[in-house]
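Please fill in the sequence for the structure shown.

STRUCTURE ENCODING:
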């Protein structure tokens, strides 16, 4: 049996302290590794989400609304809200226009070269009930939104002519200074 002398107690105590310090060191290293791993994974997730958000909405991609400037009396086109990249095609743009103008049913016909062909089967509301500025606002909104689609510069409208509007081919330039 070992004698309990001061020297043996100190030696045993030192061995215990070394084991305890080693455990503390291991626990500290494990905690530090877990923290580094957790924060590095979290940062890469945040970065990916940020990159994805910047890809979804481009600053040049908007839906347009026509309005009248009260002080000048001229037509103004305003970028209303961002459009997703997947909505830059005739179908989604025309769906948007039909939702914002439920009294006028715009129908996509075809795209040829740089012209999008649309029709309005029942144009009575557009040509007879919107007054004289309403059809200008509507056709401007249609032209600006459809010509937002890459490669489209003109919109060919086909509908029965009325008192305030008639069919024709329009571009953004047709609304400058109106």
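FILLED IN BY: designer on duty
SEQUENCE:
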């Amino acid at each position: 049996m070992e004698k309990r002398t001061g020297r043996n107690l100190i030696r045993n105590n030192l061995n215990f302290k070394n084991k305890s310090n080693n455990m503390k060191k291991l626990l500290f290293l494990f905690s530090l590794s877990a923290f580094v791993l957790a924060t590095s994974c979290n940062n890469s997730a945040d970065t990916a989400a940020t990159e994805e958000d910047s890809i979804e909405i481009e600053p040049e991609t908007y839906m347009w609304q026509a309005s009248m400037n009260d002080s000048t009396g001229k037509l103004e086109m305003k970028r209303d809200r961002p459009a997703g990249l997947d909505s830059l095609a005739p179908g989604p743009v025309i769906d948007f226009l039909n939702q914002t103008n439920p009294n006028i049913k715009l129908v996509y016909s075809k795209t040829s070269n740089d012209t999008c062909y649309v029709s309005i089967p029942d144009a009575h509301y557009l040509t007879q009930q919107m007054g004289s500025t309403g059809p200008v606002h509507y056709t401007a909104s249609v032209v600006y939104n459809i010509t937002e689609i890459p490669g489209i510069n003109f919109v060919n409208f086909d509908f029965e002519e009325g008192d305030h509007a008639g069919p024709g081919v329009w571009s953004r330039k047709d609304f400058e200074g109106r």
